[in-house]
Specification:
Layout (H helix, E strand, L loop, with lengths): L5 H8 L17 H14 L5 H49 L4 H30 L8 E4 H18 L3 E6 L5 E4 L1 H17 L6 E9 L2 E8 L6 H6 L22 H11 L3 E6 L6 E8 L3
Parallel strand pairs: 2-4
Antiparallel strand pairs: 1-3, 4-5, 5-7, 6-7
C-alpha cells in the first residue's frame, strides 16, 4: 500500500515527476514523509518550484485526512445515538419475554431479542473501530503486564464459565513493563478471547498464555473449535471480512471487525498479529507479539 491514491497520481503526473519514485510506506500517513520524498525528487528535476508543489500537495493531503477524520467521528456519533433506542428495544423485549405468551409468540420475541443483541454487538464494535483508528486516542503509559494480564484472565474465565467452556492460563513470572495504551490493549485481547469463545463449543477449552521471548511480549490464545478456514487465514484481519458460510440471515453473524481492531491496535504498538491453526489438535491459535522498549 502507498500513500498516493489515483487522484494524487494523476494530479502530480502533470508535474513531470516520476510517481513511482514518490511512493512512501503508508504507516502513520505523515505529510513530512511525502515532503521528504518530494525534496529528493526536486534535486533531480528542476522543472517545477518545490515550494509550490509542496504547498499544493500538503493542502491536498490534509484535506483528505480531515475528511477521513470527520467520517470516523460521524460513525462514532451515529453508533452512540443508535445504542440508546436499541437499549430501550431490548428492555421492552425482555418485558415481553417475561409475560404470558403463546409458544409462537415466545419464539418470535426470542428471535427479535437475539437480533437486538447482535445489533448491540455491532454498534459496540463500530464504536471501538472509530476509537482505535483515531490517532489522538492512543495514550501510551508504562504497563505492568503481569497484573494487567491477570485481570484480563479473570474476565476471560468468567466469560468461559458462563458458556461452560474450560479456561486455562499460563503466564510467565516477572513479565516486563510495557509502554502502551492499556485500554487499547485490553480491547485487543478481549476481542481475541471473545472470538475464541464464539467458536468453541460447550465443553471445549480455551488456553491463554503470555511470555517474554527475546525483546517481545508474546500473548497466545488457543481454542478447541473448528479452526480457521483457508479464507479466514488469508483475509481474517480485513475490515468487515465474513466467511461465505456465515453470510445467511439466520447464521450466527459476526462481521469481521474484531480481528481488524486487534490487528490495528497491535500495529499501533509496532507489533504483529499471527493467525494459525493448531498442530496438536483441532482449533485456532492467535498470537500477537509486541516489542518491549527499554
Amino acid at each position: 500500500n502507498t500513500l498516493f491514491s489515483g487522484r494524487h497520481y494523476s494530479e502530480y503526473k502533470n508535474h513531470h515527476i516520476r510517481p513511482q519514485l514518490l511512493l512512501v510506506p503508508d504507516k502513520n500517513r505523515r505529510t513530512e514523509s511525502v515532503l521528504e520524498a518530494l525534496l529528493i525528487q526536486q534535486k533531480k528535476y528542476h522543472n517545477e518550484p518545490f515550494s509550490e508543489m509542496k504547498d499544493k500537495l500538503k493542502r491536498s493531503l490534509e484535506k483528505q485526512w480531515s475528511v477521513q477524520k470527520q467520517q470516523r467521528e460521524q460513525i462514532a456519533a451515529l453508533a452512540h445515538d443508535i445504542k440508546t433506542p436499541l437499549t430501550v428495544l431490548q428492555g421492552n423485549l425482555d418485558l415481553l419475554a417475561d409475560s404470558t405468551l403463546s409458544e409462537e409468540q415466545s419464539h418470535e420475541v426470542g428471535q427479535a431479542s437475539e437480533a437486538a443483541e447482535r445489533m448491540t454487538d455491532y454498534i459496540r464494535l463500530l464504536m471501538e473501530l472509530a476509537k482505535v483508528e483515531a490517532e489522538y486516542e492512543y495514550q501510551p503509559v508504562p504497563i505492568q503486564m503481569e497484573p494487567f494480564l491477570q485481570k484480563i484472565g479473570e474476565q476471560g474465565q468468567l466469560l468461559c464459565h458462563a458458556k461452560n467452556i474450560k479456561w486455562s492460563e499460563k503466564m510467565e513470572n516477572d513479565l516486563p513493563t510495557l509502554c502502551g495504551d492499556p485500554m487499547m490493549l485490553e480491547r485487543a485481547v478481549m476481542n481475541l478471547i471473545g472470538n475464541a469463545i464464539r467458536y468453541t463449543k460447550e465443553g471445549g477449552e480455551i488456553e491463554f498464555t503470555a511470555e517474554q521471548s527475546g525483546e517481545n511480549l508474546v500473548i497466545c490464545i488457543r481454542d478447541s473449535g473448528e479452526g480457521f478456514s483457508k479464507e479466514a487465514l488469508e483475509h481474517g484481519r480485513e475490515l468487515f471480512f465474513m466467511e461465505e458460510k456465515n453470510r445467511s440471515a439466520t447464521a450466527d453473524l459476526h462481521i469481521g471487525m474484531g480481528l481488524y481492531i486487534t490487528d490495528t491496535v497491535v500495529r499501533r504498538h509496532q507489533g504483529e498479529l499471527f493467525l494459525r491453526n493448531r498442530t496438536d489438535q483441532t482449533g485456532a491459535e492467535v498470537i500477537f507479539q509486541i516489542p518491549v522498549k527499554k
